[in-house]
Each structure stands twice: as structure tokens, then as C-alpha cells.
Amino acid sequence: MSDAGRKDFSEKLSEKAKPESQKSYMEQGKEKVTDAADRVAGAIQPEENKGVAQGVHDAAKEGKDEAKGESFEETAGQYVEAAKKKLEEAVEYVSSSVHGGEPSKK
């Protein structure tokens, strides 16, 4: 599931699973347009309004874009680190909601 106005994760996965050589020019063009629209939507959407999964994906994508040419292990490591950060934020939010008070901003 994705945030409103964002590209659905299942669509992203199916696009990645199909080799470029098997895609029509229309499919490739549609992917480029929808990827660009999703990237813009992710850039303008405030972090606090993103779901955990969307935030993890955006953070990892940003890290990947900053360091092109990384190995699979390095990219996977970025996803893990982004996931840890978002999970910590979620735990802090839930904890502050249960115990009262505002979550601290880092």
C-alpha cells in the first residue's frame, strides 16, 4: 500500500520484476513518467505525513540516487538503515502517545 498520490508498491515491484528487454516502448515511457511523478510527490510530501513504508522507500531511494553504482549489498544496507530510523520514529511516536506528551523532533 502506498500513500495517497504515490505510486503503489505492488506496481513498482512488478515493473522491476519484468526485464527492460521485454517491455514495450509504451510501458517504458509510462514507467518513466510515473516514476518521475512519484519522485516529485515524495519530495514535496512532508516526512511526518509519510507512512513508514513510504518513508523507508523514499529515504533509501534518496541514498541510492546520491551514490550511483553501489552494489546490491550496499543498497540493501541503505534500506535497512532507513527502516531502522523509521521504526525508531514509529516506536517513539507510539510510546509518547501511550505515555502522553509530544514525540521529540530529531
Name the descriptors.
106 residues, mainly alpha
Mean pLDDT: 76
SS element count, helices: 4
Number of domains: 2
* Largest sheet properties: none
Broad shape: elongated
What is the helix fraction of residues, given as a range? 55-70%
Q: Cα distance, first to last residue?
A: 27 Å
Give the oligomeric state: single chain
What would you note in describing this structure?
By secondary structure, this protein is mainly α. The chain folds into two domains: 1-45; 51-106, no CATH class. 68% of the residues lie in helices and 0% in strands. It is built from four helices and no strands. Helix 3 (52-66) runs antiparallel to helix 4. The longest helix has 28 residues, at 72-99. The model has no long low-confidence stretch (mean pLDDT 76).
Task: Give the structure's gist in a few sentences.
This protein is mostly helical and 106 residues long. Helix content is 68%, strand content 0%.
What layout of secondary structure does this protein have?
Blueprint: H1 9-17, H2 25-44, H3 52-66, H4 72-99
